[in-house]
Write a structure and sequence with these properties.
two-stranded antiparallel sheet, 2 domains, mainly alpha, 432 residues, MetI-like fold, globular
Length: 432
């Protein structure tokens, strides 16, 4: 096959995935956003104008930006020392810590929320230990349902991401310039601030904007850990308007506002990424050991706290699953919860055995992964054989659209479909 024929083949193979992408992403997005321009069942900008100009909206937007800004900044500041150490010194446990970082990236937000409630809650592990140690009646740490809880949960998810991104880039920077500067008598601090830090600014800015985007679109963490209307963000307000107030028009107006700011953030992130130079691979060399005893102690404490902060909430979930608080079963260690989940013991509340949930999760995950990977392969091959254009921008749109907005779109579409079945539900979930 000639080169020209190969390009045409890839173009034809990409047509179907692109059509499906347009249908299953742009259609629900349009279904959601179109509601923002409807008032009294006719086209109007009145509803959109009232939402955008509202003081309540300004308050929500201000808090959304504030929590995302602080979360992203703290994530970068805490992750940077670890990235610096991994990039400049030989460190034991480096692979383990970076693997834990990857684990955090795959965790569902609701699992993070559960871990935080069990670990940091008023009746959580930390408060239980502190009350037992100091003979206290009331929990000394009141973290949940506060602004601190939101920032901590976001940091839990995003510090590992920042650590991986910065470490990967920092480790690839060639050391030749540093060696020349050291030979000329420059101190390590001067070398860092005059040589390394300027080269790291693009990746720091890119990581910051990426984390800011994640936190700006955060939903489950804000909804559960916020604990009050003063901690409402745009995504939570979209959910509240659609599911509680049943006002799809207002929900769509907030969705349009969210999309507008997400596109700005995504554009800035892409702009920052363009300044990241093509990696000039650092020559294979053995990193030196850290000989500074004070620095060793400080970084040992740093990485110990890092590991505990990640494993603590996760291990708390595992621990709590084996503890019964029921007087009927017996307070203490118990396998009763697992027996109920597996259907060996009848559970209260009418919930089915966990095997059904596991089966549904596996079916949805396998089908979604297969379809997404196959379609993505054809689209990537298409992009690789043509110049960058509008398609690249369109394919980046899902990063700017939250799951709440897409979910609302499918909810609107489902409401106008007369046919309802389990198969339809499966199909919509997989498509979403």
């Amino acid at each position: 096959m000639t080169r020209q024929g190969e390009v045409k083949f890839y173009h034809r193979m990409a047509i179907f995935p692109i059509i499906l992408f347009s249908l299953f992403f742009l259609l629900p997005l349009f279904a959601t956003l179109s509601k923002a321009f409807i008032f009294d069942n006719k086209f109007s900008l009145e509803n959109l104008k009232s939402v955008i100009t509202s003081k309540y909206t300004l308050q929500i937007l201000s808090f959304t930006i504030l929590q995302a800004l602080i979360s992203a900044l703290i994530s970068i500041l805490i992750a940077f020392p670890g990235a610096y150490y991994f990039s400049n010194y030989k460190a034991r446990g480096k692979r383990l810590i970076l693997s834990l970082s990857s684990l955090c990236f795959t965790l569902p937000s609701i699992l993070v929320v559960l871990g935080f409630v069990i670990f940091y809650g008023n009746s959580g592990l930390i408060n239980s230990i502190l009350k037992a140690l100091f003979n206290l009646e009331n929990p000394p740490l009141k973290i949940l349902y506060t602004f601190k809880a939101i920032i901590m949960a976001h940091a839990f998810l995003n510090i590992p991401i920042a650590l991986s991104l910065i470490t990967d880039y920092y480790s690839s920077l060639p050391r030749s310039v540093e060696k020349v500067a050291a030979t000329l008598g420059a101190s390590p601090i001067k070398i860092f601030f005059t040589i390394n830090f300027p080269r790291l600014i693009p990746i720091l800015l890119s990581a910051f904007l990426l984390i800011f985007l994640f936190c700006f679109s955060s939903f489950a963490i804000i909804l559960v850990l916020g604990g009050g209307p003063q901690f409402t963000t745009i995504e939570v307000e979209i959910y509240r308007q659609a599911k509680i107030s049943l006002n799809y028009n207002n929900a769509a107006s907030f969705a349009l506002l969210s999309l507008f700011f997400n596109l700005i953030i995504l554009t800035l992130s892409s702009f920052a990424s363009s300044f990241i130079s093509t990696k000039e691979e650092r020559k294979q060399e053995i990193l030196p050991k850290n000989k500074n005893k004070i620095s060793k102690v400080l970084f040992t404490i740093y990485f110990t706290l890092f590991i505990l902060s990640i494993l603590g909430p996760l291990l708390a979930i595992v621990y709590r699953s084996f503890i019964s608080t029921s007087a009927k079963v017996g307070i203490g260690f118990s396998l009763n919860q697992y027996q109920m989940l597996l259907g060996n013991i009848r559970a209260t509340g009418g919930l089915g055995p966990a095997i059904d949930a596991i089966r549904n999760s596996l079916i949805i995950a396998i089908l979604t992964a297969f379809i997404s990977s196959t379609f993505a392969l054809f689209i990537v091959l298409y992009i690789a054989n043509k110049k960058k254009g509008r398609l690249d921008i369109i394919l980046m749109l899902p990063m700017a659209v939250s799951s709440v907005i897409i979910g609302l779109g499918f909810l609107i579409i489902k409401s106008v479909i007369p046919y309802h079945s389990t198969l339809l539900g499966y199909t919509l979930v997989i498509i979403a």
